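Need tokens for this chain, all 353 residues.
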Amino acid sequence: MKQLSLRIISRKAKISLVVILVMISIGLLSTCGWHVYIRWQAQQAYKSWIEYIIPAGDDMDRVVNPQMENCTISEGMGYALLFTTIYGDNSQFNRLWSYVEHHLDANGLMNWKIGENGEVIGRGSATDADEDIAYALILGEVRWPGHGYELVANKMLHAILAHESDRDGFLLPGDSWNTSEFLNPSYVSPTYYKRFAEVSGDLTWQHIAQVNESWLLKTLFDRTGLAPDWAERSGHFQTDVFGYDAIRVPIRWLAFYRQSYDPQARRMLEQELRTLNTLKQQGLKAGYTLDGHPTVNYLNTDYLASFAAISFCKPYSRLSLGLLWQLCHSQSKTYYGNAMKVWVMSLASNNLH
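Here are the structure tokens for all 353 residues:
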């Protein structure tokens, strides 16, 4: 009965999408009306996601990860701080930041894994989380001036340069990985680095941007443009998989393109879009090798969000509208999948500008 109900819902969603596409094409539904609808859907996705935020003591909240024994991952705290800034919840932002501040390591960066009782399970930091946290603090200062967010952001930016990058400018996986052989393409956040340089006054961030953006482009598979989860400094992949880390690469680069209209970002997204159109002919799946062979036989919210982000380099195309519509009606069983949905929906509605 449950499967039948899901099929009926899916069929209704497809019929509704066809109606909307026709209405847009003949002018009965304006792009403005579509945008209003997407903004509303983004807000609903955010309201659903914040159910993962729970109290963690006096004046502190944390993001719970049910798939990891209800622990808290620094990555999730980064997403939460970004989202609460985007959607204007200053009180929630402060409670989340208080938790992060309470779990900083000796270098001033967040320990990457905290148990449900507040104990540090995973010592050392994760660079992607610290970048997201620092950027959220900078956005917080813009949205709510006078709270000192920029001051603490600057401290974290100094710590990232000192402990999460090497002398060549490569971003390391964290502050306890000084001899790491492999790096993570999804940790490269081109949108952030110009802002980091402006706020900190440290031009080292320009070098960080140049080194890591150039390296990331080397990691992309030549025929598909897909990134691996991890790669060597030479750019050669560690594993031949476009995995759950790598799905964030198009999302971060879409944000960069939306901000800067960078021609390299557009070329990268357009190559991935050509790959996406090819993959869609056989039905999109939640996992591929770098050359485009599916590794599973189903699609989930996590990958759907990434595919939707790729399609946004040509907004209002039939593919883009269709994937965004699917994403609106998709719900993950994981905090991570639903975070990807909120992130991409926020980009689609321009809430992240």
